[in-house]
Each structure stands twice: as C-alpha cells, then as structure tokens.
Amino acid sequence: MEARLLTPPLKILADENLPGLQSLFAELGELVTAPGRHLGAADLHGVDVLLVRSVTQVRAELLQGSSVRFVGTATIGTDHVDQAYLAEQGIAFHSAPGCNAEAVVDYTLNCLWQWCQATGRDLAQQRVGILGVGNVGSRLAQRLQALGCELGLCDPPRQRREGGDWQSLAEILRESDIVCLHTPLTREGEDATWHLFDEATLLQLRPGACVLNAGRGAVISAEAMVKVATARPDLSWILDVWEQEPQIDPQLLSHAFIATPHIAGYSLEGKVRGSWMLAQALYAWLGLPFNQPLSSLLPEPAVAAVHLNADADPSLPMRLIYDPFQDDRALRALFTRSPEERALGFDRLRREYPVRREFSSLTLSCATNQLPRLHALGFSQAVSSAVKRVDV
Ligand SMILES: NC(=O)c1ccc[n+]([C@@H]2O[C@H](COP(=O)([O-])OP(=O)(O)OC[C@H]3O[C@@H](n4cnc5c(N)ncnc54)[C@H](O)[C@@H]3O)[C@@H](O)[C@H]2O)c1
Ligand SMILES: O=C(O)[C@H](O)[C@H](O)COP(=O)(O)O
After folding, report:
1. pLDDT in the model for residue 389
2. With 60 as the cut, is the pLDDT of residue 320 above it?
3. Residue 138 CA, closest ligand 1 atom number
4. Residues 309 and 344 reside in one and the same domain
5. How far, in Å, from the CA of 241 to the mean position of ligand 1?
6. Whose CA is nearest to atom 21 of ligand 1?
7. Are 82 and 60 in contact (CB under 8 A)?
8. Domain around 195
9. Which GO terms describe its cellular component (predicted)?
10. The pLDDT value given to residue 387
C-alpha cells in the first residue's frame, strides 16, 4: 500500500487533450494543461499530479528530481511509462484499462466490414484470428462470434494462466482470413511483442489475408511489412498504429487498404471514460469520495435512434456512426507535405478529432431480418418513444 503523502490543494499538470478536466479535477487545486508530446522536466515545477496520454514518455528523464507523486495515463496502453522507475521512486501509477476497448472494436468491425465489401466477401463467413484476447480482443471475439464468424484465439499468457482451447501464432497465420492484433507492446520476457511480426512471420499469412493492427505499431516491423506487402500484393493491411509515430513510412501508407492516425480508440465515450477512471483512481488515492457519474460528462448523441427501412443497406448505421475512409483520406492528404509537416499533421488530426460516438449509443429498429446481425455488431436494441428517431 502506497503512503498517501498529499492533500489538496494540489498542482495538477494534464495533457491538454484530456476531456472533462475542469469538471473532474479543478476542485482539487490548480489545474494546468500542456501539449503532451513535448512535456519536459521544466514543465513539472511544483507539480504533484501528472495526467498524460500515450504521447508523453514518462521516464526518469522527465521525472528525476520532480515533486510528482501520482502519475495517471488515460489510456489502455502503458508502454510509454517506465513503471519500474515509478515504483522505485514511490510514485503512484494508474492507467485506464479497457476505457476505449469498445471504440477499438467498433473501429475494427467497421474497417473489416469495408474490406469485405470491397473484396466481395461476407464478414460472417471469414475466419478471424485474434492475437491478444484482453479487453479489446475478448470484446471483439464476442461480437464476431455473434455475427457467425469462425474464430481463432491466441494469447499465450492467458493460455498459461487459464488453460483451455487456444491457438498458436503459427496456426493463426496459417488458418485466418483476417488477423487482428490487439496485444500490448512489450520488449522483454517470453511474450515480448516488439517486432513479433517480422518478415518470416508475415510470409506465413495465408493467400489473400488481411492484417489489422490496432494495438501498437512496433508489434509489426514496418520495414518487414513494406517488403512483404511489395512481394505479396494479395495481402491487405489495415493500420491504425505505426512504428515511429508521428512519423509514418510513406511506402507503408501506400500499401494500406485503410490507414488511420492512431484513432481506433477515439470515441467520445472512450476518451471521457479514460479521464473519469483517472479521477476515480486519484480521489481513491487521496482518500476522498468521488461521486461523479460517467453519464454526467457525456452529451446526448446527435442521433440516438434509427429505423432501417426494408431496402436499407445494413451497413448504413455503421457508416452513420463512423466512416474510417474519412480518417484515411485526411491522413493520406498529409503526404503531399514535408516529413516535419506530416508529423505535425498526424498529431493535429488526433488533437482535433471530431466527435465519434460508440455503436451502443445508437438504438436500432428495423423492417428487415437484419436486426439480430446489427445487434450482434454492438448497436442497442430497446426502442423508447422518448428518443429522437431518424428513418432511413
Ligand atoms: N489503436 C488504439 O487506439 C488503441 C486503443 C486501445 C488500446 N490499444 C492498444 O491495444 C492493446 C491491447 O488493449 P487491451 O485493452 O485489450 O489490453 P489488455 O491488457 O486487456 O489485453 C492484452 C492481451 O494481450 C495478451 N498478450 C500479451 N502478450 C501477448 C503475445 N505475445 N501474444 C498474444 N497475446 C499477448 C495479454 O495476455 C492480454 O490478454 C493495448 O496495450 C494498447 O497498446 C490501442
Ligand atoms: O492505449 C490506448 O488507450 C490508445 O492507444 C489511446 O487511444 C491512445 O491515445 P492517445 O493517448 O495517444 O491520445
């Protein structure tokens, strides 16, 4: 148990891209915001609590000699934080496990649906291999299974802990039409994922397969991916994360079927839930009650209910919520510019990301027999007369 050394008023430094800051943290003291990518030791003068996103490297170089006692990251991934150093220094650390997992699943289903449409496939008929079956992977498995997809699951740490029916990476590569990567980025130990997909691994993909990476870029070697994509034009790539963000290899981008700027988890719900989970953790650490419900931070969605007519395209509600090609076009448009401008543009696209709601924010009714399939995709079912309905 960590000693609680702090009592309000506190000085809190937070990434300017965390939503809900005023409402969640302002009463604890002085709240200062800054762009996270370039935070340096000089910014931490007198700071007690540091709240970051994945773009801030939280390591000894940043924290040495600082007054910070609590670090929170409003993200699922924690590879940007040296947790061993924090523990050694007695600095409390909290992340936001699962905060944007639903958003990543929405993104993944939407992109896979688009890929199937473009290549004349039926998503329900595909065999999907999922690598990393945690908060994201297990939700994805549930929704794909409800759609009727055949699944292969690979998660060696869970396999060792729980036993049961799992596949090896080699089996996933050999048997899957679609391979989805949802592992953390780790560099040490028997499950290390850094460059887990090198040239030899990628060459084992079955003909015509699609790889989707919404985990961390460096789980696939970018160099190997360019080589294999060039040699194997039968393969498709859906990439939300990139080795060396915010720099992206233009060659790799040119091979991607869908390319997005690390926004798979960027639903409004996901981002707000991240901040809210940090507030819960900080209040608990301070020994203070925290009573703010998550719902108080979320506005009503612009469209809360949709009725699909008999001839409506069943992918319509997915596209209504989110069109990955909009993000894809915005990212590719940066590539007429210099490398420096592209990197700045990558961060700008993320900073100014438009409001995107989760599938579950939309209640569907339907005049066709598509309803069970749409509900399996994650849309809500109950139709209340109180919600605004749009007929399409
Ligand atoms: N693109 C985005 O916007 C976005 C959003 C959220 C999370 N992420 C990334 O996705 C990752 C997964 O998220 P999550 O919430 O499911 O995390 P999680 O920790 O709940 O699950 C990760 C799973 O991967 C498994 N795993 C670890 N090493 C593995 C290996 N070598 N092979 C197969 N499985 C392995 C773990 O056992 C665990 O079950 C995060 O660590 C984060 O880096 C990206
Ligand atoms: O790990 C996560 O939660 C996601 O990758 C998250 O969406 C990262 O977003 P960022 O913190 O870079 O804004």
Report:
1. 56
2. yes
3. 16
4. yes
5. 13
6. 134
7. yes
8. 100-259
9. cytosol
10. 47
Same domain, 138 and 221: yes
Is there a contact between 224 and 243 (Cβ–Cβ < 8 Å)?
no
Q: What share of the chain is helix, strand, coil (3-state, %, to 5)?
A: 40, 15, 45
Q: Per-residue DSSP letters for 116-141?
A: HHHTT--GGG-EEEEE--SHHHHHHH
- Residues 248-277 pLDDT 10s: 999 999 999 999 999 999 999 999 999 999
Output the pTM of the full model.
Answer: 0.95
pLDDT of the residue at 33 = 97
Residues 316 and 253 in one domain: no
Atom of ligand 2 nearest to the CA of 54: 11
Q: Whose CA is nearest to atom 42 of ligand 1?
A: 77
On whether both 79 and 224 belong to a single domain, the answer is no
pLDDT band (50, 70, 90) for residue 392: low
Whether 124 and 213 share a structural domain: yes
> Which residues are designated catalytic?
216, 245, 262
**Closest by Cα among 317, 387, 375 to 147:** 375
Cα(271) to centroid(ligand 2), Å: 9
Mean pLDDT of the chain: 94
Pocket of ligand 2 (CB under 6 A): 17, 53-55, 75-77, 100, 265, 350
- Examine residue 298 and state whether it is found in any structural domain, yes or no: no
Which residues make up each annotated binding site for NAD(+)?
155, 183, 240, 265
Report if residue 1 sits inside a domain.
no
Polymer length in residues for the chain = 392
Q: Ligand 2 mean position to 240 CA, how many Å?
A: 11
**Per-residue pLDDT reduced to its tens digit, 101-144:** 999 999 999 999 999 999 999 999 999 999 999 999 999 999 99
